[in-house]
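Protein modeling request. Please complete all fields; requests missing the sequence field cannot be processed.
Requester role: graduate student
Desired output: 3D structure, token encoding
Chains: 1
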Amino acid sequence: MSAAVPHPDAPEIAYRDGELSVEDVALSRIAAAVGTPFYCYSSGAIERQYRRFAAAFAGRAPRLCYSVKANSNLSVIATLARLGSGADVVSEGEFRRALAAGIPGQRIVFSGIGKTEAELAFALEHDAYQINVESRGELEALSAIAQRAGRVAPVAIRVNPDVDARTHHKIATGKKENKFGIDLAHAPDVFVEAAALPGIALKGMAVHIGSQLTALGPFEIAFLRVIELWRALNNRGIKLPRIDFGGGIGIRYRDETPPSIEEYAAVVGHMTQGLDVELAFEPGRYIVGNAGVLVTRVLYVKEGVTRRFVIVDAAMNDLLRPALYDAWHEIGPVKPPVGRGPALAQSVVGPVCETGDAFALDRLLPPFRPGDLTAILSAGAYGAVMSSSYNTRPPTAEVLVRGGDFAVIRERPSYDALLARDRMAPWLAGR
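Delivered output (431 residues):
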């Protein structure tokens, strides 16, 4: 990672004047102000990706609802809200985050297979744009809740098209053995039932086959099956004004070659040509994935018998993806070292007491030394949002950059704040 632009899909994150910067702010400057580790996001990169997605579908004026689970920081959501984005949420907590960031309920899609009655009632109370229903039980519960509240629930039925997304098995959602959506075999009857239920306004059909898709083939198969079902229902008199195509378009972490958003849009455009239907999408990773980095500092370098370990102050509680998915993230120096010789095979690991707490194993990297700042790229999606306080480690700070300015958008909690979340049992107090 020594080129001027370390990641071709994130030109806002580049080496300037000899060190890695996000837009016009050197990461070493932020490290000096907030300490390490920290996440840093580029406003420009987030805005550019959103605008590019919208431009690819400009002729269809789709509803774009940012998938909040990718990165739920209020400032990130608010950045997109100001561009007109809606939100795709999977819990009442995410719904509340979207509202707090300035996205009204009328621009929020509520997805997820396990919504509670309280969550469904909250969505109705706040005028959700669409509730994606994923089971008969949920549909019947929503009908009863809507009737009690004197409201009508705007519903899309999520269909499971039984398509192999060719992605990691833990983030595949569109095969019949996955827990998501209603099987194609059962879907027609569920749509008929929904159309007849009181308190339900059937607005559309939804599909989402997984995250980090890097080929168009699975999309094409899934969309074809969904559109065939849409036509069949239309012929039966069930008119669905909207198709929600979900998110899922992947990004480059290593050597993937995901389709461009323009190629993806062309597939959707071809398949929906001539259909009188609104389009909705829920991009997440595509918008924020390459807009963020995790900056960490080298604590120690340990020469093992078979490996050279670079021990950093970030850990799996800060960035879980490598431990959970064996995910690859590019890693490099904030300030490229001079005069240290060629790259060495090194394993970058964290302090957590788990062998799986590793960001890279035996990877050729510049010779690191204690005190060096390193950057883990493509960390804007499913990074801080999946963090924890495992090993009683304070979750990392988050920073947003815009041009030459930066702001801390989530403080690193103190140890006192972490301990204050616990309560001593009454019979143990004072001992």
